[in-house]
Amino acid sequence: MQSAIFFETPVEVFARVFHELKPRTPVPRVQVEFCKFANANSFIRWDEGGLHVRITDVLEGGPAPILEALAHILLGKLLRRPAARVHAERYRRYLNRKDMRRSLQLVKQTRGRKFISGPRGDCYDLEEIFEELNIAYFHGLMARPLLGWSRAPSRVTLGHYDPSHNAIILSRLLDSARTPRLAVEYVLFHEMLHLRFPVEHRGARRCVHTREFKQAEKAFPRLKQAKDLLQRLCAG
Ligand SMILES: [Zn+2]
Prior knowledge:
Layout: H1 10-21, E1 30-35, E2 43-47, E3 50-56, H2 64-78, H3 85-95, H4 98-111, H5 126-137, E4 146-149, E5 159-162, E6 167-170, H6 181-196, E7 200-202, E8 205-207, H7 211-217, H8 223-234
Parallel strand pairs: 1-3, 4-6
Antiparallel strand pairs: 2-3, 5-6, 7-8
């Protein structure tokens, strides 16, 4: 396994990897810029001016092997030579580290913009339903997150909990007189369980609906009926 040579600058890393992937092509001028993105995205462009690389500043000063892995991934995409699995795997593992997840969550929180409507929709008031569910299933102990309706009436994502903004967003599709209240209650209850049982990271794997989660969901009395309602709603 090849590893980065110590003391290489990011520009040198990208130039070296370029040469490895395209040994017969003169290495273009390389520019690497660390940018304050709201996520872990990185970009590469090749034009007359040379190679322009823009990397999230969360990786600035990161270990050289990680930068090298990213160079393989980005240049591989650009030159249509898919990066070896070892690079993709190394990069993914690094981003999944606890401290990295924390930094990424922080930049998302402070830099990402998020649209959050109020809890009161045309038909249903999420605050009211939240408090009912809170009393019925959480001993009234759950701190209320931001509650809102999505901008678009999505049939695919009926609800989601966004931990970086501490917000539960329900699809506007549900805020309709044709949607039985039970369906809205169930989707909100499901998202409240996500708040109660945070996503578990086991190594590189994410476990969203844990065993405890599924067990707790069974406390909802008309679970099957609610799920059937939603299935029909999503089918159009
Ligand atoms: Zn879920």
